[in-house]
Design goal:
This protein is of the alpha/beta class. The chain has two domains: 151 residues, 3-Layer(aba) Sandwich (Rossmann fold), CATH 3.40.50.2300; 59 residues, Orthogonal Bundle (Arc Repressor Mutant, subunit A), CATH 1.10.10. The chain is 48% helix and 14% strand. It contains ten helices and seven strands. The strands form two sheets. A five-stranded parallel beta sheet has the order 2-1-3-6-7, sandwiched between helices. Helix 2 runs parallel beside helix 3, helix 7 packs across helix 9 and helix 8 crosses helix 9. The longest helix has 16 residues.
């Protein structure tokens, strides 16, 4: 059966989708985690990595997307170890698992951000079972998946004007975090966040958080 890992901070979500996936007879759940630290520890300890990782964008106070670069680094280290002289001949390489974002956040900006970071697919937590299977099969075949109803923002010129930090702040605004929460999440001063938001408004020709969220 195809091994899948679930990363979500809601136990009910993990238990529900995990039971359903196992019930199809095609998949097995090789691990679950509620935060990035748990996920990293689990991946590091695995000899055989999952084929697909379901990842939520929001993990409590953490940004779930931060797990993606950590996963890339773990795979890189595992591959380096596999080719070291101290490793037995024939050691297998760590093939990067496919990241399938499963989230309640359906904003095109956030979805595009996930793909830019390395995710291969996106499904809403309200997706029907048939769509979930379609997404999984697309990733297993080496492709990507996103419902055509989502029009990604990679062609929105406004976002291309933003710096990496400004994009991070927009991402958090779109998840309804206030300025103090954003400052805490990014380890910035409140004044710095406010200054960034002022520049974001100017670059995107918006005047409020509501306009920015709807852009």
């Amino acid at each position: 059966m195809i091994p899948i890992m679930l990363i979500d901070d809601h136990p009910l979500a993990i238990n529900g989708i995990g039971a359903w996936l196992c019930g199809t007879g095609r998949f097995t759940i090789c691990g679950t985690a509620e935060n990035i630290a748990e996920a990293v520890s689990m991946i590091e300890s695995m000899n055989d990595l999952p084929k697909i990782i379901f990842l939520d964008i929001s993990l409590g106070e953490e940004d779930g997307l931060d797990f993606i670069p950590k996963l890339k680094e773990i795979c890189k280290k595992k591959n380096a170890a596999a080719f070291s002289t101290d490793t037995a001949p024939g050691a297998s390489t760590a093939i990067m698992p496919n990241i399938l974002i499963c989230s309640m956040y359906e904003d095109p900006f956030l979805i595009q951000q996930a793909f830019d970071m390395g995710a291969k697919g996106f499904i809403s937590k309200s997706a029907k079972s048939s769509e979930i299977i379609t997404a999984i099969d697309a990733l297993l075949e080496g492709g990507t998946y996103i419902n055509p109803k989502y029009k990604l923002d990679n062609q929105n010129n406004a976002w291309s004007l933003l710096s990496r930090r400004e994009n991070e702040i927009v991402s958090l605004i779109k998840r309804n975090l206030n300025n103090r929460q954003i400052a805490k999440r990014l380890c910035l001063s409140l004044r710095t966040v406010e200054n960034h938001i002022t520049r974001i408004y100017f670059k995107t020709d918006t005047k409020s958080r509501e306009e920015l969220i709807n852009l």
